[in-house]
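Two proteins, back to back. First:
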Amino acid sequence: MAFSGCGNDNRQNPYMMGEKTSQKGKIYTVTNKPKNSEVTIATIEAETKKEIAKINKERDLELKQMEENTKLLELKTTNEMAIKEHNLSTYVQESQFAFKNSTLIIIVLSFIGVMALTFYMFRKRREDKLKMHEDELQKEVYLREKELQVKMAEKILDTIASGKLSEEREQHLLEALDKTTAPTLSHKK
């Protein structure tokens, strides 16, 4: 079993400039003479240096381009972060403002509710007091009327009991006595 490298076996092997491959495949022969080889080596070294300089220049340009791209990316990232921070701070301020507003609205509504309840209770209490006072006044008026009726009835009975009146007058006083006691009975109902 044969091991092979990264490529196929039928690939061409590299050769130096000025060399030609032989027909057998893998043997190289140098056609130039030794005095031309120094010139060839100098030319190859010059070309190699040019290639190296060119590669270094391209590498430097690519590095410079990569640095610029990195700086642009950093700048872009910094700008995006600044925008996000600004948006976040704006959002936080707006949410704090909304929270303060909703808290203020709740406090005002609570205050209005407490005031309305207090007003309602005060008004109800006042109405109850007025009704109690009115009931007391009606009771007092009723008791005074009763007192007056009792006093009038006593005077009428005293006058009738004295016997100085005629029968006609006594009858008239008895009818008056009936009239004064009749409204009292209807008032109780």
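And the second protein:
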Amino acid sequence: MLFMKRSILLGAVLFSLLLTAAFTGVGWADAISPSQEQEFLDARVALEAARKAEGEKFAPSYIKQAEDFLKIAGSARSIPDAEGFSRASRLARAYAELGKASAELNADVEVLAATQETLLKAKAEIDRLKK
């Protein structure tokens, strides 16, 4: 009885997925163009640049989002879903660039905080010597 209910539920889910694919055009999707492939490659390059800027340390959520969208783009490539592939590639690049910018900003904040601390120590030393 339980097996029969699961089989019916699985069939209904598969049918709804096929119906959704048919109405959204996934079944008849266009091939992925060279410019869309370039968007994907640009997103991967942007992610590597964000990692080099210590994005995983300073902006891990943005790096994770970029990685997730690259995975989605890879899945869309295998369908092929050109629109989904392109959208996921652009989002991956945007999150990677946001991660890089955030990492660079946070690294600068760390440097500024260290500089501020050094300045305060120097000022304290000057004040001590004046007395």
